């Protein structure tokens, strides 16, 4: 294959990725609120908190770039402002979104 041709294709792909990223679209490509479902059970103080290697913590770390997007959605925003969410965040060592962070 011709090297300049491969280089040209790589530059086009990089440019497209840059445009998507700068438009905020790259985050939405990987965001999936359903990945946080395993965390719901840990909102209950009667349930043992999640371990840092639990599916909940792994998924919340994977979705961390998406948390502000979820927080801005009125359907999910109030879920982040609960004692249960704060508990999960503390045990998974993650900062919950809020107006100061996501503005």
TrEMBL record:
Gene3D superfamilies in alphabetical order: Plant lipid-transfer and hydrophobic proteins
Pfam families: Tryp_alpha_amyl (PF00234)
Domain of life, per lineage: Eukaryota
Record InterPro entries: Bifun_inhib/LTP/seed_sf, Bifunc_inhib/LTP/seed_store, nsLTP2
GO BP field: lipid transport
GO molecular function, one term: lipid binding
Bifunctional inhibitor/plant lipid transfer protein/seed storage helical domain sequence ranges: 33-102
Signal peptide: 1-24
Keywords of this entry: Lipid-binding, Signal, Transport
Protein name: Bifunctional inhibitor/plant lipid transfer protein/seed storage helical domain-containing protein
